[in-house]
Amino acid sequence: MEAHDIRAAFGTLPELTVTSATTEADAMAAMRMVASFNQCMVGMVRFCGQTPWERHPDDELLYVMHGEVDVTVLTDAEAVQTTVRAGSLFVVPKGLWHRQLPRPSVALLFLTSMDGNEASTADDPRTGT
Question: What is the pLDDT of residue 50?
């Protein structure tokens, strides 16, 4: 058991520039796991550039430490976009495809599933096209 100084940790965290050439290994190297919580991990990341689509078997919590980010969530009926600003949190419902676009960069604290996560670079991962 220990307390974590999140503000200090963000000060040493490198910024990832997400591009079409960014690999999963690149992304994982830029993230820092802070703690585990039930079947999830508490992590942190600082990045710019649009992420690929992703979905998780559990809800995902995003807390914006610095900057702001547009989060797009694909429901069965539509794409819903929300801007999340510093000091705010957003919960992505489990099983829904989503991606983030920082404006221009963002530092996130997140809580997400450790296993069963999926990613897609398709224009619409619901259809695979």
Answer: 97
